[in-house]
Design goal:
Shape: globular
Bound molecules: coenzyme A
Number of domains: 3
Distance between the termini: 69 Å
CATH superfamily of the largest domain: 2-enoyl-CoA Hydratase, Chain A, domain 1
Number of strands: 19
Radius of gyration: 26 Å
CATH topology of the largest domain: 2-enoyl-CoA Hydratase, Chain A, domain 1
Length: 561
């Protein structure tokens, strides 16, 4: 080794022991770099060649269209950006979905990516759009569709044709619920895709670009023998002047976006809660004095969310105190918030932390796993806490870091199934909005009790260090090994130890891989893998979005055994 090599910063860093905080930060930053690399694949769409061709045609990319549509300086909460990860389809599934603010109105925005197979919809595109429409429905949001799609991905038509009908059904049901639907058509919108403008409340088409028809010229020729051209069959001019399908004819893409914004400005949109939540630092005069009815000011957290990176252990098995996470997510002390977090039942069931806080001024109840395992006490505490949140109409935040419910004779005899079932009953039948964030492990029925994906939280996000599966990889491989050994013994056969070791190693690595956030996010089992430092902002957006529709807690649960 040369002298220069020994003196390089990397070499020095490698030999110097890092503090535990620095080691954790480095570990998590590494994971975040991996997430960024995967997100970059979604942003790259169909790749350089197709992006360049699209720009050469004078067209904007989906994210460029969204950026121009939303209010200047406002955030866009992109959802499911990793959809389709690990499949043969492009990461992101040829559509961009997310929530953006247009003329002050929080809208669900979906935008086809025409650089990926002409914006054709594959099975993952459908799953992603269905999820977006579920979010719009539950939170009562208007939907804006930025349309430019080759319709069904023809090679996978058998997987999308039948379920795909839901896309159009959802649009018209949204309209019936008085959740407005707006289609801005930038390009081709063929066959089934023609029903997106057909079923939207408002339709804008770009001159000489939008083409909306049930069948293009070749198919018409085949079906009826009629000779036609694209403009006559489905051009924007024709639809604006003759068929009446287009309500507005836009000169170009920017004009279509301008018209879209005007439509939303005229929706006379009212959120269910008209309270204004103002950061204390920005509040001035009477708002800052709390003298204005309907205005709530809030303070930033007691501890900088940046320091979350120093807290999360590199090994998931190492427990960490969720209170340290909570005080980095929730509001600090202000006129409306005397302490950041009022813990509920702090002396009972200590491996689940429960309590009340505010986030961006809005009240929330929090359930957060502490030592990993849920015992009977924790399950009973959670059940009571969820009932209390329903009694006072307060949304709930679940912070997952659990290996599941406790097993063993003592716990079975103590009624762990009954108590765990009561918690699952409470989570299932609770009617206040729920948000879940996987901040560590989320294993077994603990995933269910803590409001996993199957329990339909309004939003569910994952930190890059999180893992989720029926159980940990070693445990799962160990269980398989014990079962195989018992089967061999029952048959009186010798057990092949070498094959067992190979099987365990293979199963462990397979389960490890399947438990990772990219895989789960790719399958739409969350709404996105997020940077822990962004969690507070994202939760603040979600709580504001939730305020679009009224909600009411319940006192009606199933039978508690
Ligand atoms: N399913 C699967 N792949 C499709 C597709 C579809 N519906 N439509 C287009 N593609 C593919 C093309 O084969 C091409 O792939 P390649 O580059 O690997 O060869 C890629 O997407 C880009 O298509 P291209 O035709 O070059 O793009 P374009 O921007 O010039 O034209 C369309 C876009 C949508 C006008 C044109 O592709 C088209 O008419 N597609 C068929 C639309 C249709 O009839 N759909 C039926 C839906 S039920």
């Amino acid at each position: 080794m040369t002298a220069t090599e020994t003196e390089s910063p990397e070499a020095t860093e490698a030999v110097e022991a890092l503090t535990p905080e620095a080691e954790r930060r480095r570990h998590l930053l590494g994971k975040l770099a991996d997430v960024d690399a995967e997100h970059a694949k979604a942003v790259a769409g169909g790749g350089e060649k197709y992006v360049a061709r699209h720009h050469e045609r004078g067209k904007l990319l989906p994210r460029e269209r969204i950026e121009l549509l939303i209010d200047e300086g406002s955030a866009f909460l992109e959802l499911s950006p990793l959809a389709g990860w690990g499949t043969d389809f492009t990461v992101g599934a040829s559509v961009v979905c997310g929530i953006g603010v247009v003329e002050g109105v929080e809208c669900m925005i979906t935008a086809n990516d025409p650089t990926v197979k002409g914006g054709a919809s594959n099975p993952w595109t459908l799953k992603k759009i269905f999820r977006a429409s579920q979010i719009a429905e539950e939170n009562g949001l208007p939907t804006v569709s930025l349309v430019e799609s080759a319709g069904a991905d023809l090679p996978t038509q058998k997987e999308i044709f039948i379920p795909g009908g839901k896309l159009f059904r959802d649009l018209t049901r949204a309209s019936a619920r008085k959740q407005p639907t707006i289609a801005l058509v930038f390009g081709s919108s063929t066959a089934g895709g023609a029903y997106v403008p057909g079923l939207s409340d408002y339709t804008v088409m770009v001159k000489e670009r939008a083409q909306v028809f049930l069948a293009g010229p070749p198919l018409v020729k085949m079906a009826t023998g009629e000779e036609s051209d694209e403009e006559t069959l489905g051009g924007a001019e024709m639809h604006a002047r003759t068929s009446g399908l287009a309500d507005y004819l836009a000169e170009d893409e920017l004009d279509a976006i301008r018209i879209g914004r005007r439509i939303i400005a005229r929706l006379n949109w009212r959120k269910a809660s008209e309270t204004a939540y103002v950061p204390a630092a920005l509040a001035t005069g009477s708002a800052g004095d709390m003298g204005v009815p309907g205005v709530v000011t809030y303070a930033e957290p007691e501890h900088d969310p940046e320091t979350l990176l120093d807290l999360i252990p590199t090994d998931l098995k190492e427990p960490f105190d969720p209170r340290e996470v909570i005080v980095r997510l929730v509001d600090g002390v202000s006129a409306t918030n005397e302490v950041p977090f009022d813990e509920f039942k702090p002396l009972y069931g200590s491996s689940l932390v429960t309590g009340w806080a505010r986030l961006h001024g809005r009240p929330i109840g929090i359930l957060a796993n502490a030592q990993g395992v849920l015992f009977s006490e924790e399950a009973q505490k959670a059940t009571q806490f969820i009932q209390l949140a329903n009694q006072k109409n307060t949304p709930l935040l679940f912070l997952h870091n659990t290996t599941g419910y406790m097993v063993g004779a003592e716990y079975e005899q103590g009624g762990i199934i009954r108590h765990g079932s009561a918690m699952i009953n409470a989570v299932s039948n609770s009617k206040v909005p729920h948000i879940s964030v996987l901040i560590g492990a989320s294993y077994g029925a603990g995933n269910y009790g803590m409001n996993g994906r199957a329990y339909d939280p309004r939003f569910l996000f994952t930190w890059p260090n999180a893992k989720s599966a029926v159980m940990g990889p070693q445990q799962l491989a160990g269980v398989l090994s014990i079962v195989s050994r018992a089967a061999a013994e029952a048959k009186g056969k010798p057990y092949d130890e070498e094959a067992d070791a190979g099987m365990r190693a293979m199963v462990e690595s397979m389960i490890e891989e399947q438990s990772l956030p990219f895989v789960l996010s790719g399958m739409l089992y969350d709404d996105g893998v997020i940077d822990p430092r962004d969690t507070r902002t994202i939760l603040g957006i979600c709580l504001s979005v939730i305020d679009n529709a009224p909600f009411e807690g319940t006192d009606r649960f199933g039978v508690f055994r």
